[in-house]
Amino acid sequence: QVQLVESGGGFVQPGGSLKLSCAASGSRFGINEMAWYRQAPGEERELVASITRGSYTDYADSVKGRFAISRDNAKNTVYLQMNSLKPEDTAAYYCTCRERVTAIAYWGRGAQVTVSS
């Protein structure tokens, strides 16, 4: 059973920066793709950014040029550097990963990011 623990959320003013971290533990086989999703109140959960084990990345159009996803395979940890934050970035941010061999997807509990003046 893989567990994901997010950290780094918080409150920031527009134009500010935050960095989210997510550490995966408990996998016997290692981790393939990792990603960040977000969900604002009353909205559907949406993909923010994803990264493969080989560090190929993909981003939602709304965050391109502002957010950067990265990972440390040795630590099974994924990061999301968020710059030039906007009020519309306010949401709960969820980390997810897919385990190698089993292909099971796991989710973290979420980290709240609030952007407001």
List the helices and strands and how they pair.
Blueprint: E1 3-7, E2 10-12, E3 18-25, E4 31-39, E5 46-51, E6 57-59, E7 67-72, E8 77-82, E9 91-99, E10 105-107, E11 111-115
Parallel strand pairs: 2-11
Antiparallel strand pairs: 1-3, 3-8, 4-5, 4-9, 5-6, 7-8, 9-10, 9-11
Total number of strands: 11
By DSSP (H or I, 4+ residues per run), the number of helices equals 0
Quaternary organisation:
single chain
Supply Rg.
14 Å
Major β-sheet profile: 7 strands, mixed
N-to-C terminal Cα separation, in Å? 40 Å
The chain-level mean pLDDT equals 96
- Characterize the overall form: globular
Portion in beta strands: over 45%
Unreliable stretches, pLDDT < 50, 5 or more residues? none
Please provide the ordered H/E string of secondary-structure elements.
Answer: EEEEEEEEEEE
Helix coverage percent: under 10%
Structural class category: mainly beta
What does this structure look like?
- The model has no long low-confidence stretch (mean pLDDT 96).
- With 117 residues, this protein is an all-beta fold.
- It contains no helices and eleven strands.
- It starts with a strand and ends with a strand.
- The protein has strands at residues 3-7, 10-12, 18-25, 31-39, 46-51, 57-59, 67-72, 77-82, 91-99, 105-107, 111-115.
- The protein is globular.
- The strands form two sheets. Strands 2, 4, 5, 6, 9, 10 and 11 form a seven-stranded mixed sheet that branches. Strands 1-3-8-7 form a four-stranded antiparallel sheet, with no helix packed on it.
